[in-house]
Write a structure and sequence with these properties.
The structure is a homodimer of 431-residue chains.
Chain A: E1 6-17, E2 20-32, E3 35-40, E4 52-62, E5 64-70, H1 85-98, H2 103-118, E6 122-128, H3 133-146, E7 149-153, E8 155-156, H4 170-184, E9 191-193, E10 196-197, H5 205-218, E11 223-226, H6 230-239, H7 246-252, E12 257-258, E13 261-262, E14 264-267, H8 273-282, E15 285-288, H9 290-295, H10 303-308, E16 312-315, H11 327-345, H12 354-366, E17 383-387, H13 399-408, E18 414-420, E19 423-427
Parallel strand pairs in A: 1-4, 5-6, 6-7, 7-9, 8-10, 11-14, 14-15, 15-16
Antiparallel strand pairs in A: 1-2, 2-3, 4-17, 12-13, 17-18, 18-19
Helix pairs in contact in A: 2-3, 3-4, 4-5, 7-8, 11-12
Chain lengths: 431, 431
């Protein structure tokens, strides 16, 4: 029997829509050839010959998708958090990323990143590297080994990075990108390249246009940053004076993507009606980074408005402006941010519910990878098994209650096992 | 040699003012008879005969003070967090607290609370029990055993608690309070009683007046809640129509305390100029509960304004509206809340700095207990030793950087040892 065909038993929770969480107490979830066959109260006859792993009282939830995370920033997370975006970039981030020119440095730092990503709630991630090809290929090698499914980008930046973190010009940056793509061509199963112009202040017009062209020619997706910080937005308006909005600037360079080849835009804290229209039209994904947006005093993105407008949304940790790769901590901060937007900014914009945030962390971001993020039949089988027994209770709690409690007490939710496309990629040796 | 006289060596950090964090790499901090003698780069000759505990690269910081936490709510923390205050109280909190009429139930639940409080960053706490005398005495017994220094209150509530969580009337509530005080008189060294009228909606005018009188007669401090939620504030205005503000209502009942016998008011999210003046005049303490105030969509208290006005402030977890007793997680959320107040509400009110929040978590709340919360000479010796080696870094970090990083990654900061008044009250057996 194949290793990627089996049955898991335990306390199961997943989203079928943003409006509810489907749960099974001591239920079954079935994986055949890495594909979910559904969740059941009683195990259907046809699956009774499959190997059964009984996790008892433990929780089983879909793997989560971290839609925006900077691998080279992981090692300095949680530092310099009193700064705002542009100061934080120039003081902490760019000097650190410049060190990845040294492959030995990169190798060591990325081992730490890859190992921790393997140990957290994410089964999928969309990752920024640095502008360095060699280091980025090392990162992809390491991520491939984890068994996680990722997109990874060599960063493009030909201006405003300082002497140590700038490519010579648009041509050099584009050529490096092509070299990178050729070097990894056919090398990976789990790890895909994604074009990664850092953000408009880092990329000349020619570079942006070149990225847009490359994306079309090679059917490659793009990730970048949009409308994170008020000073950044003003700067973009100076840099691209003909644009009607920051999103429109990306549009002018043909980098906003299509529904078939969607661009991810991190943040969108200050995106108004025009940017919402552009994001929607292009089928772009918003990577909502609530932790980061609070830490760098950027603000709070109006996710409820984006949801109502039918824009694609996933959650993201945005390490190191977000301080942790823990997606359940991200869920908590997403909820808190949304409550504060309602209370402090606009009481017409209701807070996100726990159900909606759980949906965004699993299906919302998962959909960027296809049929991913839930235990409905036909979805790729990503699952995390969680031991929450450290959290005492005076009464039996429902699976729904335990899932919520876990997100509000992330430090006490211990991952036992993690599966990606039906392969076990991590197992805890301590519980 | 006395057990409460010794030297600790390690990475030391503490506040001498809100504007900086004093650090020593491989420094010494000296405790004689439970009192701190100061921190040093080189150990002074006079202390060289004391027993030295060398913690190597570990961090040593002052114990923190949790200025507001509800013991009976701990076991259901992290649940029902989509509700606002009044719904949350009636749906989750009051039914749970009613169970503490059963002493066996209370005993079991409080064991869990007391044990976790012992294991966290707090060396001091100000605690709400329930209205039940027997359960509250059990809580005090258990807290006394931990070696932590606490104030604990039997809750007064003679209205709006529902059938199962209401005292008969003011007289009954006051008599129960006197009975409770007599039952514990002289029993504890570490555990002091504090008068605890829940909040004005729970206490009739007669009860509030009686508490005020009792406080004066017996020189007992008071704790309560102030201006947490907009619906609550409107309700208080209906209940005490002659009051000019919620704080003034407490003042009318003579429960706002004095600088020598200060009242703690949790929240003050919506406190304006008049309430600030009242708090200041009475020398009251604000227990700032940022996590709780986000979770219950209450809002964000303008702590910068309160600091500028010279009002006493400490930080608090407010479990279970706050979801964790972890004070360093509370510090992170306090920072995020203050940044969002600045960004979304009033850009004249600058965010709190990391230094200020560290000060509030240690000295700010500690001062409620006297000379507590720092390693300056003459302060009571409360200390927490932390292993942060799980957090990898590519370079040597300063103690200041490690302290900040720890707060942003609370799950990876492991407590090795905790001292209160020079007594070791907790030691980890796993690291």
């Amino acid at each position: 029997m194949k290793e990627t065909s089996f049955v898991l038993r335990g306390g199961i929770a997943f989203s079928e829509s943003p409006h509810g969480i489907t749960t099974y107490y001591r239920g079954y979830v079935v994986c055949v050839d890495g594909i979910c066959q559904g969740a059941f109260t009683d195990l259907p006859e046809e699956y009774k010959d499959l190997k059964l792993y009984d996790y008892g009282e433990r929780l089983i939830i879909p793997g989560m998708t971290d839609l925006h995370v900077h691998a080279p920033q992981y090692s300095f997370r949680g530092i310099g958090m009193d700064a705002e975006l542009l100061e934080w970039l120039s003081t902490y981030t760019f000097p650190e990323e410049a060190k990845y020119a040294d492959i030995e440095y990169a190798k060591k730092a990325y081992e730490y990143f890859a190992d921790d990503l393997k140990r957290c709630f994410s089964s999928r991630a969309v990752v920024f590297g640095t502008m360095h090809n060699e280091a980025t290929i090392e990162l992809m090698n390491q991520l491939e080994e984890t068994g996680l499914i990722t997109y990874v980008g060599k960063v493009n930046m030909d201006r405003n990075g300082g002497v140590d973190l700038e490519e010579k010009d648009a041509e050099a940056s584009l050529q490096a990108t092509i070299d990178w793509l050729e070097a990894i061509d056919g090398k990976f199963v789990n790890t895909k390249p994604i074009l990664t112009p850092r953000f408009i202040p880092s990329c000349s017009d020619d570079l942006m246009r070149g990225i847009g062209k490359l994306s079309k020619e090679r059917n490659l997706r793009i990730q970048s940053h949009l409308s994170e910080n008020v000073s950044e937005i003003a700067w973009v308006k100076e840099l691209v004076p003909e644009s009607t909005s920051y999103a429109n600037a990306y549009e002018l360079f043909d980098t906003m993507g299509t529904p078939e080849c969607p661009t991810i835009m991190a943040h969108c804290v200050h995106s108004g009606e025009e940017e919402m229209r552009i994001l929607k039209e292009h089928g772009a994904y918003i990577a909502h980074c609530a932790d980061s947006n609070m830490n760098l005093t950027s603000g709070i993105a109006p996710i409820r408005k984006f949801l109502d407008a039918g824009i694609n949304i996933g959650l993201a940790t945005d390490v190191a402006a977000g301080s942790s790769m823990n997606m359940i901590k991200t869920m908590l901060i997403t909820l808190q941010a949304s409550k504060m937007y309602y209370r402090l900014v606009d009481q017409e914009v209701k807070p996100l519910t726990f159900e909606e945030v759980f949906y965004l962390a699993t299906v919302g971001g998962g959909s960027y990878f296809g049929k991913v993020g839930t235990f409905k039949k036909g979805y790729e089988f990503d699952a995390v098994v969680i031991d929450d027994s450290k959290m005492f209770s005076m009464r039996d709690m429902s699976i729904r209650e335990r899932i919520e409690r876990m997100c509000y007490n992330d430090a006490d939710a211990i991952i036992k096992d993690k599966y990606v496309r039906g392969k076990k990629v991590f197992t805890s040796t301590t519980i």
